[in-house]
Amino acid sequence: MNPDKDIIIEILKNLSLFQELNYNAVKELTYLFSDRVFLSGETIFEENDTGNSLLVIVSGEVRISQRADVSGEETLTVLKKGNFFGEMALLDDLPRSATAIAQSDTFMLEISREKFLHFIEKDTASGMRILLTLARNLSARLREADSKIKAFVNLSQWL
Questions:
Q1: Strand order in the sheet with 72-79
Q2: Residue 50 has what DSSP assignment?
Q3: 106 near 63, Cβ under 8 Å?
Q4: What is the C-alpha radius of gyration for the chain, rounded to an integer number of angstroms?
Q5: How many other CB atoms are there within 10 angstroms of residue 125's CB atom?
Q6: Which of 29, 85, 126, 152 has the fewest beta carbons under 10 Å from its own?
Q7: 10 near 56, Cβ under 8 Å?
Q8: Any bridge partners for residue 73, and if so which?
C-alpha cells in the first residue's frame, strides 16, 4: 500500500497532533514522512533502542509493551489506524521507553527527529502548535501514569 499525497494529507490532518495546522503546513509535512511496512509479529523497535522518529499508523495495529520481571512482557496498549507513537524521540535523545511490535501487517508513516526539528524551525507558528499538542498529549499520559501509581500504592497497603 502506497497512498498518494492527498490521502496522506487527510490522514495527517485527522491526527490530533496536526489538527491545528493549516492545509499548507500539513501538505509540507507529508513530504517529510517516509513509508514503513511491518509484517505481523515484526518488531518495530525495542525498549532501550535509540529513538529518533515518530510513527503514524495508516493501517494495521501495533502493540506497545514493556519488559516485566514476572511475565516477561506487559502490554501497555494496542494502537490502531490514526494513532501515533514514538513522539518522545522527537524531543529527547533518550532510549525508547517501550517495545513496539506489529500486531498485524501494518503500514505506517515515519518522520525523523532531524526532519521534524527542521520543519518547526522553518515554520515556527506550526511548530509551536505541534509542540503544544505534544505537551498536552504527554501531560495526559503522565497524569494517567500517576493515577495508576497511586492506585498501585493504595492497593499495596492492603497486601
A1: 43-45, 99-102, 62-68, 72-79
A2: B
A3: no
A4: 17
A5: 11
A6: 152
A7: no
A8: 67
CB proximity list for 32: less than 8 A, separation 6 or greater = 111, 115, 116, 118, 119
pTM of structure: 0.84
CA–CA separation, 130 and 114 (whole Å) = 15
**Domain locations along the chain:** 5-154
pLDDT in tens, 106-143: 999 999 999 999 999 999 999 999 999 988 988 888 88
pLDDT in tens, 72-108: 788 888 999 989 999 888 888 889 999 999 999 999 9
Other residues' Cβ atoms within 10 Å of the Cβ of residue 65: 18
Strands 106-112 and 72-79: unpaired
Cell numbers given for 54: 515518530
Distance between CA atoms of residues 115 and 95, nearest Å: 19
The grid coordinates listed for 86 are: 514514538
Instruction: Please determine, looking at this structure, whether the domain spanning 5-154 carries the CATH number 2.60.120.10.
Output: yes
